[in-house]
Recover the amino acids of this structure.
């Protein structure tokens, strides 16, 4: 079922369906390997919930909630 990346909790995985980010933000994450079809794992959240740390394609990245809301994922 599609949702947004910010809805994944620690330990949950999803598959990226599409990015609805501004071109420069999408390009930055795409260079790191975040693109449709990529499996992504939420590792942890900051104490106040933002940002969250995600692992994908061997990369670990902190993504702000406002940006994670624009990444559509299918939950596993």
């Amino acid at each position: 079922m599609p949702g947004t990346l910010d809805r994944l909790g620690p330990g949950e995985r999803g598959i990226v369906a599409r990015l609805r980010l501004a071109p420069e933000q999408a390009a930055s994450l795409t260079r790191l390997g975040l693109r449709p079809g990529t499996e992504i794992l939420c590792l942890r959240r900051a104490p106040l919930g933002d940002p969250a740390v995600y692992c994908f394609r061997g990369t670990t990245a902190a993504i702000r909630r406002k940006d994670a809301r624009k990444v559509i994922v299918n939950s596993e």
Notes: Residues 2-75 form a domain with the SH3 type barrels. fold (CATH 2.30.30.90). The chain has a mean pLDDT of 93. The longest helix spans residues 23-32.
